[in-house]
Amino acid sequence: MNRFVKLALHWQILIGMLAGAAIGVGLNVGGGRSHVVIEDGLPAAMRAVSIEDSSEQTSIRQRMADGAERVFVIRGAGEAPAGAGAASVFDTWSEFSRQEPALSAICEARGRSPARVWGGRFRRLGGLFLRLLKMVAVPLIITSLASGVLGLGGTTSLGRMFSRTLGYYLVTSLLAIVTGLLVVNIVRPGLRGGGLPVAAAGHAADPVAARGLGDVLFSQVEAMIPENPFAALVEPNFLSIITFTIAFTLFAMLVGGEVAAAVRRAAEIGFAVMMAMTTAIIRLAPLGVFCLVASVTATQGIGVFGSLAWYMLAVAIGLVIHATVTLPAMVWLLARRSPLAFARAMSPALLTAFSSASSNGTLPLTLSCAERRAGIRNRTASFVLPLGATINMDGTALYEAVAVLFIAQLHFGENLPLVQQVVVCVTALVASVGAAGIPHAGLVMMAIILQAVGLPMESQGVILAIDRVLDMMRTTVNVWSDCCGCAVIDAWDEHEVKGVT
Fold it and tell me: How far is it, in rounded angstroms, from Cα 273 to Cα 142?
């Protein structure tokens, strides 16, 4: 046990994933199917209940005391059994429980397969880890954004640099998201096998999809402006929280003096505490991954990893395209520098980012490489890089867009319509601003996008198993994007200074 604790976190998560998969597959193979006939202890109106439970679906035949028979099917990708007559088909167990609470209670207590029983137990334990992630989401967003924005200063020169930096970061993040959406629409990883416990073939008409594109985009703008900021914290409405936090900190800078200093100090203290708390929660990731993977494989079988392999491929392709094509083109065209030479100069920071999966942890080395190896001026690096480590998350934005569409493909059994993909694009762009530069912070921010398109928060559990590897990759892209932005802003600023002189 002591050796396990001393291992690096990504090795711990890998071990937890493999152990959870092994136990889950064992449960699925050995206890994935059951057939139970219950005739005793039933309400007077029921004569017997026959339950066939498997990974694909659960079929329930209910014989009433008056001789009538009712058939229910809770399906994954399955259809009603042959000869079932007019069966009532439900997409999820919770949907069935809401309509037939008494029958659902009987089935839960006496008719579930061993794999389903243990899968449910593992899911509840893994859910505790997800609850911890939800717990830190709001304060992490607020303190991360506030401490970053308040560190900018208030001069006209810095204001101009801020607008340029923010514009550059928004453009590159948007390009990253579009790249991710294009890749996931071509690869379609969620439609190549596997599934989630909450998945359902097909879905009901979504009110978001039924509206026009203009209405959808305007509703996103409305969501960014809270009627009551405190209500937004309670709900929580992440878009409103991000917008209000940025506005509050900017006006604190305008007030200046002791007020700005006090707000900045409070934000820095809060961010330090939240980083420590989030880091501590992330230490529980191996156990959370173990439980969540065991739950998925126990109820769905090893086939779910077929989709995860395609999902990893889609994320990797998107990140490689953005890191080797889009960002180098920015450096070459806008900064007039050799992308290869610049990457070589920044390589120590990039390798550290890959191994640590932390933009903030890599920041001191990134600053040193930018100034001493790449020749970036201190006035540019000290402003652009800390801001980038806070709000510029190209890799995270791309990853979240791919992940949400992957989850939607698994959940609905089809690709999201264009209107909802636009919602994903806009929401991922805003959500990436609030992603703190620490390992696995993207998991916290993904709740924003899942909420925007009506997907359950629990569905992100299936991707936790391989999140660490992808986290290392996307953090490297995040830091590389910060570096490229630093080079571009420095070139623009230097050109302006020369023009003035």
Answer: 12
Helix or strand (DSSP H, E) at 60? strand 57-64
Inter-residue contact 339 to 328 (CB < 8 Å): yes
Alpha-carbon distance values, 127 to 124, 221, 411 (Å): 5, 32, 18
Tell me the sheet residues that pair with 106.
none
pLDDT digits (tens, 9 = 90+) for 200-240: 333 333 434 344 445 545 766 777 788 888 888 887 777 68
Q: Between β-strands 69-75 and 88-90, what pairing exists: parallel, antiparallel or unpaired?
A: parallel
How many Å apart are CA 413 and CA 374, to the nearest integer? 48
User: What single string gives the DSSP state of each residue in 171-227?
Assistant: HHHHHHHHHHHHHHHHH-GGGSS---TT--SS-PPPHHHHS-HHHHHHHHHHHHS-S
Residue type at 136 in one-letter notation? V
- Cα–Cα distance measured from residue 388 to residue 385, given in angstroms and rounded to the nearest whole number: 5
Angstrom distance (rounded) from CA 27 to CA 423? 39
- Encoding tokens for residue 145? 């954004």
pTM: 0.61
Q: Give the number of other CB atoms < 10 A from CB of residue 93.
A: 18
Query: How many angstroms separate the first and last alpha carbons of the chain?
Result: 65
- Residue 150 above 50 pLDDT? yes
- How far apart CA 319 and CA 324 sit, in angstroms, is 8
The yes/no answer on whether domain 154-231+302-500 falls in CATH 3.50.50.60 is: no
Residue type, 181: L
- Residue 290, CB half-sphere, CA atoms under 13 Å: how many? 14
Which class for 92: exposed (0-12), middle (13-18), buried (19 or more C-beta within 10 A)? Answer: middle
The Cβ of residue 351 has, within 10 Å, a number of other Cβ atoms equal to 13
**Distance separating alpha carbons of residues 214 and 139, to the nearest angstrom:** 32
Run of H or E including 361: helix 359-368
- Stated as kind and residue range, the H or E segment containing 193 is none
SS3 of residue 215 by DSSP? helix
Q: What is the CA radius of gyration of the chain?
A: 25
Strand ordering across the sheet containing 34-38? 34-38, 46-53, 57-64, 69-75, 88-90
- Enumerate the β-bridge partners of residue 319: none
Structure tokens at 160: 């101009």
Instruction: For residue 46, give the DSSP letter.
Output: E
CA-CA distance, 51 to 345, in Å (whole number)? Answer: 65
Amino acid identity for residue 397 in this structure: A
Q: Give the least confident one: 26-35, 80-89, 162-171, 206-215.
A: 206-215
Q: Write down the domain spans for the chain.
A: 38-112, 154-231+302-500
User: What's the Cα-to-Cα distance from 252 to each of 87, 150, 257, 272, rounded to whole Å?
Assistant: 62, 8, 9, 20
Q: Which residue has the higher pLDDT, 386 or 395?
A: 395
